[in-house]
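cron nightly-structures :: item 1 of 1
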Amino acid sequence: MASDGTALPSIALLAAFRAVLRPLARLAVASGLPYARIDEVLRQVLVEAASAAHSTLPPQRRVSRISTTLGLNRREVTRLYRTEKAEKPAPPSPATRLFLKWQSDTRLRGGTGELLRLPRQGAGLSFEALAQEITRDVHPRSLLEELCRLGLARHDDAQDTVELIVEAFVPRGDRARMLGFLGANVGDHLEAAASNVLGDGREHFEQAIFADELSAESVRELRRTITRQWQALRAAAVPALEALIEADRAAGRPQDQRIRIGLFSWTEPMQKKDIE
């Protein structure tokens, strides 16, 4: 305990919460999201977490325990407890899966690693054949139109070929999908970090490198290095994941686990006090 009777872990926890919530607050303000809506969502997820922590209790006792845990009155807990939970993030769309497949399949890269331009149709290495490897429920033409709409691919009408025009799936102009990525990627990252804090710290891989006293030129060079490393990781991980999925299916093992592998970087100017 601190000299004022405050639990030291709570001080550290609140500092961590502040650091995590600050960018979300910036996003909320920029998007015009009012406090009342945020408060409602926060109450809902707190009740969901408290309910999961006391899942063995019968409903009535669980409401009382949640009320005590969170400091909310029973009527409010009951209201929130009955609120329909938000839907889980949708699985990757066929267009997303096609884009990632094209990125990772070594058959679709040239001798120096460049992405190949594909004929739109054909039995060999064609866009249509690749699309049908992903799904036969969506017509290849529809997938092509979606990739072009998102600014990820280009169709050359004269030569009837298709090429990817970006190296990362960042659907600019599609705000809903970008927010979906934010929730899924950052949410899973925080889940891993929180589980490590609550456990022995080794359940999930969650590491970072940080440095300061860099110039803007050095940061630009480092971004190129990070991009190359990510491309190498993606090229190795996607085929490995596909092979493991097939091996599990062949062996009849329960396929009830999911994984998300990510890499991020963040740069900003140093605070003046840190430079002096």
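cron nightly-structures :: done
Residues 216-251 form the longest helix (36 residues).
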